[in-house]
Amino acid sequence: MAQKLVISPAAALRAARASTGGGQAVLARLCRRETGFIYQFAILRPDGKVVRLTLDAVTGRVMRRREQAGQKKSARPVNEHLPDAEAPTERAPGKASL
Question: How far apart are CA 73 and CA 77, in angstroms?
Fold first, then answer.
C-alpha cells in the first residue's frame, strides 16, 4: 500500500459493500497470489445472507462473488435453547451431572 500498488482497505471495503447493496463486513483480508494481490471479503447483508467477494486489489473490481443463505427468520438464537441457570433441572436416576 505504501508504494500505491493496491487500493486502500477502506476503498476496497466501500467497493465490496456497494456491490452487495450494503451490509457489515465480517471478514476482510488482503492476500498475495501468484497473479498479484486480492482482497477477500465476507459481507453480512441486512437480509441475513452472507456474500463472499474476491476483489482485484489494484483496481477494486469484483472478480468472484458467492452468496450463502443466512439464518431463517423463524430460527431462534443459538443460546435460546439452553436452560435458565436458575431453573431446576431434572436428572435421570443414577446419572451424574457434568
Answer: 10
